[in-house]
Write a structure and sequence with these properties.
4-stranded antiparallel beta sheet; 6 helices
Amino acid sequence: MPAEGAGLLVRVRPVLQLTDDQFYELCRLNRELRIERTAQGGLSIMPPAGGDSSALNAEIAIQLGVWAKRDGTGRTFDSSGGFVLPNGAVRSPDASWVSHARLASLTAEQRARFLPLCPDFVVELRSPTDSLAVLQDKMREYMDSGARLGWLIDPPGDQVFVYRPDSPVERLQRPDRVSADPLLPGFRLQMDELRKAVRLHAG
């Protein structure tokens, strides 16, 4: 079986072609796994996150959530949120944000399932076993799908890659903070808090 990142990539076409509803039910039946669908219909199956990655994910979600509540113009989603991209892929970024204006265009049924849109802002967090190249491809997929800002956070390399439409990727080495201006005005991810989260988890 081909590998994608730290998980497994299972090719199912042309033997099997899951509809969006069937894929949603497959994910519901396997809640202990994080399953994504590639644009080619393959299933990317990832195990639950390890302790350090989980602690970092939680810290990112906390910081983004606190900002979003204060700002009030959109909603945040954690790593369990699924999004159906225009190319047919179903992705679950580690953290994301969507404006209320875009969410308002969806029906109640659409909001109850994987959202049929690409988030405005996406964050992917690299674990020690993740392939950096695979995550970089995923970030390009988000940007091609309409994301307006993306961060690929690479703790093993202590670096952050910043993605914006029609701009070169910006690489920040050991930043103190990362700004999401102007899309998310005033939101700055405090990197020292992420490093602290891992130190605390390690005891």
